[in-house]
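Readers of this paper often ask what the protein records in our data store actually look like. An entry from our holdings is shown next, in its original layout:
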Amino acid sequence: MKIFFDHQLIESFYFWIDHLLVNDGEGYCNFSGSLITGKTFKKNYYFYHSPQAQWVYDQSQTGANVPTGVTINGTFYGNNVSGVRLSYRDGGVYVPVSLGNNLVVEASYSAKEYNVYWGDEREESIVASNKWEKYPKSPNNLGPRQTDTKYLPAVYITYHPVNREALALGGGDFINNGIFKAFIFSEKSKHHISIHNLFQNQYNKHFAIYRDIPLESNFGGYKLSVNSFHYDNYSQNQQNQYNNLAYIQDLSITHLSESFTKNLGKEKIASVVEFDVQTFRN
């Protein structure tokens, strides 16, 4: 199916927020060790994963361990070698059944301190309709992750399009594209305040819109029909898209009540940041 502009804008915003948290916020921790055996995928792959939910994929982040492959029974397999395929979004690797089962799969990686999710649920359903668990700090004695589990702390993004009214200015039009909402779920007040400050500093700034996003890119995950991952160096990609930008014309922060977050457990802190986004059309 044809890729429309909203798809490009949504995924571009996702990658921008992810980059802010990891790069500007330095929100990651480095790990190394054996991965956990997960579920069989489409009968052709075993999924091995870390206890942490999402891996850093941005190679422009200094100090982060961005995996380029994994070690299987002592032999290193690069991404896309012999059918071995990394999934940064899912924090793991797909290993073809042809390599055997009950393998020892090891990796060095950086896990995000705040996982980033996308969804289109109604606001009141974001917490209630999802399975949320605490971010695991230790890799010991943990079983397979469930595919529908979302881990805290997290930033959950939704998009709300608006009427695209154009404002003529300097040989082109500014288009009001919509409102992005970033729901922030935290366990520590100091971290929550840091993200507020980070996001507030984006007022009147911009992010790159990627025009070549494949429909199967799946927000940093890995669809088995995709041959490569396009966003492994955000800083370089941002420079390459200097003439395709979206602008943050306004933003606001609202703190959420305990009734909204009661399914997350006690002592969770929640708020929502609204980003009013414009683009420029010649």
In short: The chain has one domain: 5-281. Residues 5-281 form one domain.
